[in-house]
Amino acid sequence: MRNKKKVVIKIILIGAAIAVGALFLAQFIDSFGNGVFKDWFYSRFIERIPTEEGISYPVFYNWGGFKSFIITVIVVSLVVVSTIIILVMNYSNNRKSQEMKNTIESMRLQGQRHEQLLQMESQRKSDLITYLAHDMRTPLASIIGYLSLLDEVPEMPEEQKAKYVGITLDKAYRLEQLIEEFFDVTRFNLQTIVLNRQKLDLRLLLQQMADEFYPLVEPAGKSITVDTPDTLIYDGDGDKLARVFNNIIKNAVTYSYENTVIRITARQEDKLIIEVASHGDSIPKHQQEQIFEKFFRLDSSRSSQTGGAGLGLAIAKEIVDAHGGEISVRSDEKETVFTVKL
Hints:
- The protein is an alpha+beta fold.
- Helices cover 60% and strands 15% of the residues.
- It has a five-stranded mixed sheet with strand order 4-6-7-9-8.
């Protein structure tokens, strides 16, 4: 209520000021012109009274008319000022209303996008569980089949027996991998990343990671090089960062061409930058951000030989985010480079 009174008082004062200003302005303009306003004003409100000395002086003879004139000017000024204020307020309100509509629309679109992402993620997860369940049956059937042969034919030649045992072992390893992927899928949304930070030598960590992949790259004529500074100390969770680089290097090993070199480099700038570069089929531009989403796979048909749960890079991103860093990828016909900034 007090605010409304203040607004009314301000409008009245502004109107009065404009009215007085208008009179002075008219008088000022009149002084440079032919005196039209002055003549009208004098003829309407002022009468000159002559004296015995022959000098006349002005006297208000129509004080009531003058007051009516002043009131009229003030009222007109108030109407003009009020109209201007109303127009300005309406413009401001319309602008705020439009901004609010835009904000609501933006929030609505973000909500729709979030809901779509959740639906896509849920669909991917559902499809992936179906794929895993189907893929588990293949190695399991092979394991049962070969073990049945070994059991039914105890006099089987040693060479053939060793061959069947080797095949059975390979299928068991594959089944173990699929079971691990299945557990990754089912427990991913339940885990919370808690960091156990400590001083660690990233140079040593990266070299160890490269050495672990030697049995996988050597048969395909691939190799891994590590180029880092002699001293590369970082305060982070070594176990979880090992999982980050394991996932990235594994991705490079899986999808790089035969007889190529996978390069791991690290350097210290404003941040600690680690890059893993490989030569293979390029990742389409529109999918270079999607590959960090949960359950996303470039090969949607999911090859059971190279396919994973689509969680490796998503987990890597969550671990890097927990360290306050960022992970990205760039890919073209020449090479694919994963970059981690810590």
